[in-house]
Amino acid sequence: MDFNKTVILVLSVLLIITLVIFGGLIRTNKKTGFPYTQDYCPKLWNTDFKGNCINPICISNNECNSLAITGDWRSSTPGYTKFDAGLAGFNPNHEDWETYGGATTSICGKKNWANEHDIDWNGISSYNSC
Known about the structure:
By secondary structure, the protein is α+β, with helices and mostly antiparallel strands. It has two domains: 1-30; 34-130, no CATH class. It has three helices and four strands, in the order H-E-E-H-E-E-H. The protein has helices spanning 3-28, 73-76, 106-116, and strands at residues 46-47, 53-54, 80-82, 88-90. The longest helix is centred in the first third of the chain and has 26 residues, at 3-28.
């Protein structure tokens, strides 16, 4: 056997082994929704020391942001809390997110809520596995 045939044979065997390994990895890879990571709170919302998401619309009674939320988000938000100094927010780990809007998981409940109120929540409002 000459050198060229030997090289082609070795490379062919290496290619087959590589394809089998990658095929096995792809087959065992669990299917997950995209995006793979989610922000803890909606975009531009703050977090307090207890882990609540604080609405950025009104920082205080005199200072309000132009960011608007459609609908009455307060009455429909699981874990809604009113804080001192006129602040309001919610607990993103509240158990009622799992069933919000007919959802079966908390991330789908958060997605339904975010889309219903036109809130941009990185990793939630664009989640595609609900």
